[in-house]
Amino acid sequence: MIQQQNEKYIFVTGCAGFIGFHLSLRLLYEGYKVLGIDNLNDYYDQTLKYNRLEILKKDKHFTFIKGSVENLELLDSLFNQYEIEEVIHLAAQAGVRYSLENPHAYIQSNLVGFANILDCCKQHQIKHLIYASSSSVYGSNKQVPFSVSDRVDQPISLYAATKKANELMAHTYSHLYSLPTTGLRFFTVYGPWGRPDMAYFTFSNAIIKQEPLNLFNYGNMRRDFTYIDDVIESIYRLIKKSPPIDISPPYKIFNIGNHQPVQLHYFIQVLEDQIGMKAIKNFLPIQPGDVQETFADIEDIVKFIDYRPKTNIEDGLRNFVKWFKEYYNLS
């Protein structure tokens, strides 16, 4: 453990989630005090969230609050009680397809919750708010790679619409109150301790159980898979970097991707090789809200933080499958 650097807290929302867990681990390792909040909802297997949390709780510099960002009274009390320097807002209702079934969950968590975070950051003069957006804001954009300068005003899922709304809300607070904000458009993050609702997780489960796995758009998809370690390194460097106070308004958006889209058929082939079993494939039409390809232009952030993702899909999936087999006690 590195010597404690700062008595102030970094506030990580969604700390028991996939990215929030890994980021909190990294911050604790680097000597930061972390205040984490998570509502531990049942969108996916809660056991995984509790197991992540148990690892974080082993560090004395980690403080956990069970609660929702939609609860403004709770948030305000935390900002009053703890000396928070920066906020990394990762709590959200995730998933494109689930937004078709349960739209109100997205309105509450992604809009009301984000508005609460913004207002608390303004009231308490937070040094920097870094928040999760999503590559889904690009919708069915045909121009690749996707650039942060592209128009993103035609979302094709409610989830994407809420993430674009977050960017607009952040811009407003940056403009009106000089609150430094940085939005991160994540591109298909994967790796150990990942989300069970993500394709690589469900595919692995199906291959091992020899159950059919659904390939939408008949498998003709390309995704810019981004390994969790590269994502965390990027966020950590943004935290270490001075907030965007040299521009007016103090507002930035970055793509967090690998800049190497992978054909879904090859992705499954790599999974099969790592697991040592063949997949049973069920080919289906494209689903509402899905896009055929994601591809991140990352030159802006590479220049800004002097870091380019290093993990290829073969190494990343090897690490994931190793964890997957160990976690679920699979031979």
TrEMBL record:
Residues 10-257 form the NAD-dependent epimerase/dehydratase domain. It comes from the Bacteria. It holds the Pfam family Epimerase. InterPro entries: Epimerase_deHydtase, NAD(P)-bd_dom_sf. Keywords: NAD. SUPFAM superfamilies: NAD(P)-binding Rossmann-fold domains. PANTHER family: EPIMERASE-RELATED. This is Protein CapI.
